[in-house]
Amino acid sequence: MARRLFSQTKTLFKPSSTTPIPIPIPIPTSPPNPNPNPSLPISPSSAALSAAESILPFLSCKRRKKLRKKLSSPRVAPIQRDPSYRDLHFLDAILDRDAAFRFLYRAKSYLSSLPSPILPLSAAGTLYRELGFPRGRKVSKYADRHPLLFHLPRIDSVPHLAFTPLMESLLAEEDALFDSLEAKRMTAIRKLLMIFVKHRVPLAKLHHCRALFGLPADFRDRVCKYPEFFRVVVDPDGRHVLQLETWDDNLAASALEREFMSNEVQARKLFRFQLPHRKALPFDKDERKHLDKVTTFPLISPYSDGSGLKPWTIEAEKYRVGLIHEFLSLTLEK
């Protein structure tokens, strides 16, 4: 009886020659979510990255190695923003505006520095750093975005990048504006040197930031006309440094101090910190003014010597805040 039951069980589980045995096929699983914060939506680039990683097991060894190398590149890696950071839309708008005008500003500066403001298109394609467009893109595409300022004339059947007559008239107006504002801009540079350590700054740094302070491209030549204010020295490493020649006490007044002199109440509001109190404790005008004087730190001039301040103290923090405020007040955009 037991032998008969064993033979029937063996026949039941014996694989048939005609019935194929199912082979388990590995199902590609999706990689872990690269977005650690599920409340934030996944960008299309992250979805494309996940789809590319899912087909890796079905590729050959050579293609798998090539695709894996591309997926590990920082250019395609998903960028996850820290959810604790706040969105600063006004700063993002400034960055977007600067990116939109990068080609216009750099191309204008580079072509203006040439003896003849015209450049072959083939040579312009290799000067992506100088002209301010991404590498591998066509410079004609960016020039077509500004048809009133740039055009592509053909000289001997060779396309060139050049200024339009409107752009040339605007450049002439800009030069005249630089000449009329030269005295004010030199005063701003004097104040800038007065707040710097040792009252000196490399000329290359000023030339790089000349758009912030409204300086012309030939600023390094114009400072030589003011030997009573500036002096150009050469450091041991070969750098040309602009150094302040004379100190002017009349200029050693920050924008906050001038605002404090004209409107003391408004200037104190910039550095006031809140003192919590109950609503049942009303203050009259004189009491609020007295409390305002108590809860407002004394103003420390950025033109004073801050080397004697102890780090991480209230006075040192106030000095650094005033220094940044004065630096921004000397720029064109404030």
Automatic annotation (TrEMBL):
The keyword Hydrolase applies. Residues 13-43 are annotated as: Disordered. Residues 89-334 form the PORR domain. Transmembrane segments: none annotated. Pfam families: PORR. One of its GO terms (molecular function) is RNA binding. Keywords: Hydrolase. Residues 21-41 have a biased composition (Pro residues). PANTHER family: OS09G0473400 PROTEIN, PROTEIN WHAT'S THIS FACTOR 1 HOMOLOG, CHLOROPLASTIC. This is Ubiquitin carboxyl-terminal hydrolase family protein. It comes from Rhynchospora pubera.
